[in-house]
Amino acid sequence: MDQIPTTRDVIEGAAGGSLDRPLQRAPLVLNRRNFSWITERISGVVEQPAPRWWWVCFTITGSIAMFGLFCLGYQISTGVGTWGLNHPVGWAWDITNFVFWIGIGHAGTLISAILYLLRQRWRTSINRSAEAMTLFAVMCAAIFPGVHVGRVWMAWYLAPLPNNYGIWQNFRSPLMWDVFAVSTYFTVSVLFWYTGLIPDLATLRDRATTKIKKFLLGVFACGWRGSNRNWRHYEMAYLLLAGLSTPLVLSVHSVVSFDFATSILPTWHTTIFPPYFVAGAIFGGFAMVLTLLIPARAIFKLHDIITPQHIDKMAKIILLTGSFVSYAYTMEFFVAWYSGNAYERFAFWNRVLGPYWWYWWVGMLFCNALSPQLFWFRWCRRNILVVYFVCMCVNAGMWFERFIIIVGGLHRDFIPSSWGLFIPTWVDIWTFIGTLGIFTSLFLLFVRFLPMIAMSEVKIVLPEADVHAHSPNGHHPVQAGGMERA
Amino acid sequence: MKTPYGHEVYGIAAEYPSAAALYEAAKMVRDAGFKRWDVHSPFPIHGMDDAMGLGKSWLSAVVLCGGISGLLTAILVEFGPTWGLYRLIVHGKPWDWQTVPALFPIMFELTVLFSAFAAFFAVLIMNGLPRPHHPIFNWERFRRATNDGFFLVIEARDPRFTELEAHELLERSGGLHITIVHED
């Protein structure tokens, strides 16, 4: 069997050496790492005892999370009056935080679903942690609309359950669409994430050393044994879940934007909102992915798997979506002028020069529109400090943007006698900081207990996983019809 | 089929040094006419379905059924009570065909939700999972199937199975560590 190359041959390039590959791409895993290195490195993170830094970080974020939960408990038991909401600003930090968190989730789905459909193989290094980030962000997001209704124990009114009170939902209301969109998004994201986890849980199961670990991982791995008869259905399910998540993720932030766009307030009542919100969500989400991955990559020494090439590509997506968002900001001003509507024009002058002027200058203009323009330069995309600086700007800027849209639209009502400002209370502030604590605590638990990189998927991008490399037809011996070429 | 020591035989298994070797071996086993056999790898191998002579997965049909049932559920929930039984008038908005698009978002969401559940449960059911134990786990080397090992198993219940012929085929295809795997 000398025509069949061994793994070593493929790694050393002997197998495909005779072929000319005019479009040879940079490797996605550096230093010619092999399958077992990937398993060792990624499983090792989970299997070794928690390092000290982990306990320090988790204690801090866990305490913040607990205080956030205390604030929520205080708000629920006392009433929405503990927040600074008052006429005319009836939505402020609560809905800002909701839109902020739900937007962050979008990058995870973009990486796991849309880049999968587009056959972007570099996604495999980052999709698992980005999907986990999605789930945690949506959990944080769901807190705010759930709690801002005031009487949380009546939240079941949102569900179309037959009841003897004669209550039925208004399915034509954007707020109802939102309930369905966000809950569907969360459920589908969980299913997609768990489906992707099954083969990796099986890897951990087969390496487990204690009985309890073996039992628990055995249960969650569902008895996966890497059979190709199973992979066949699995790959189809994965493809279809990606195909379903793609329109879903676009619909979620569109529906969130409908909460505003279907109202008649100046600055809210615009048709540009759905694409503008979706682009903003991906923009802010990618910044958060990098915010989490750059430290994780350094701490766990994953430089061979999350390479400068990955960071470069994510930076390019931030540049692209950031430019979409800047275009939308510009177009909003143009339309305000072009509409000739006095209220609309006033609202936009007020955005730049009104009481919240610095939110616009710092948040929208500097953080969101200008800072990502650094990514036109390769040097900036390859410099971790610059990338991290831009990501932190975008994280903050996207929160400011949502605040400007929401409070900016509300604080100057149609008649000056109804004008007012929003002053956050300590409960407002600490509930938001609390969700940051919940989010980071959940992410820390995730990197501690689950493989943070999809091992079975990263293995596919190694050169020795390509069984066609040595075939005389080069990379694609299988035709569209699925039959092998003669 | 039993071993001389009275163990029920599940099948005969071999390990291969690389994904490419497993791919070539699968083509040989397919051409030898075996039906009940499988390959195991830590990741899905591109082209392996053809090498094993497997067709397209019909999981997509289940997902289509899931999507249709989600859409019908939404239509039922939205048009039944809201359109017919309780006509909820909000903002004085009329109930006529022009307002139907306002019902689309929830139709879309439920279609996606039911399709995703269908995909998730179909992949488990069609693969016969969860299955906590399987005879192949009796083979100590098989742990590497989720790490860096490539395995091929021919089951004893295959009508063409004889130990000699299967062993010879695995050997000829480059299989290493050829082993009889017990049922229990």
Could you please describe the fold and organization of this structure?
The complex is a heterodimer of chains A (486) and B (184). Chain A is mainly alpha-helical. Chain A has helices at 7-11, 35-47, 52-78, 93-117, 127-148, 174-207, 211-220, 228-261, 273-299, 308-339, 342-353, 357-370, 378-382, 384-410, 426-449, 455-460. Chain A has a domain at 23-152 and 174-313 and 428-465. The longest helix of chain A is centred in the middle third of the chain and has 34 residues, at 174-207. Chain A is globular and about 70 Å long. The two termini of chain A are 21 Å apart. Chain B has 184 residues and is an alpha+beta fold. The relative contact order of chain B is 0.28. Chains A and B meet through helix 2, helix 6, helix 8 and helix 16 of A and helix 1, strand 2, helix 2, helix 3 and helix 4 of B.
Structure at a glance:
The complex is a heterodimer of chains A (about 475) and B (about 180). With about 475 residues, chain A is mainly α.
Average pLDDT taken over every residue of chain B: 87
Number of domains of chain B: 2
Strand content of chain A: under 5%
| Structural class based on helices, strands and sheet pairing of chain A | mainly alpha
Order of helices and strands of chain B: EHEHHHEHE
The side-by-side strand order for the widest beta sheet of chain B comes to 2-3-1-4
Q: Which spans of chain A have pLDDT < 50 for at least 5 consecutive residues?
A: 9-20, 472-486
Low-confidence stretches of chain B: none
- Calculate the terminal CA-CA distance of chain A, rounded to whole Å: 21 Å
The outline of chain A comes out as globular
Helical coverage of chain B, percent range: 40-55%
